[in-house]
């Protein structure tokens, strides 16, 4: 888990049967360290989308990526990529790919 400037991480060790629950939002930067284990490693991720925004107002943003602080060029390219994708979404609100829509059954 990173601070909002993506400069200082708090590491959560990957331990057998560990469950990590976190809120993902505009400032919840997170990453995975290089896997050191030789052998099989499994990870299950699940996202829950609420009808109401945790911030109490609707907002839109593309999924953003940032490189680690020591990866200067990759970080610059990620910032440019995020800007381009954000601009594309403002011009074409529905995006460029088919959309997955999950609706509650009546």
- What shape does the CA trace take? globular
Indicate the structural class: mainly alpha
Task: Give the beta-strand count.
Answer: 0
Q: Please state roughly what percent of the residues sit in beta strands, choosing from under 5%, 5-15%, 15-25%, 25-35%, 35-45% or over 45%.
A: under 5%
Distance between the termini: 38 Å
State Rg. 17 Å
Number of helices: 1
Largest sheet: none
Instruction: Give me the strand/helix succession.
Output: H
Percent of residues in helices: 10-25%
Mean pLDDT: 81
Low-confidence stretches: none
Structure description:
The chain has 106 residues and is mainly α. 19% of the residues lie in helices and 0% in strands. The protein has 1 helix and no strands.
Concise overview:
By secondary structure, the chain is an all-alpha fold. The protein contains one helix and no strands.
Label this structure with key terms.
106 residues; mainly alpha; 19% helix
Indicate the topology:
Elements: H1 72-91
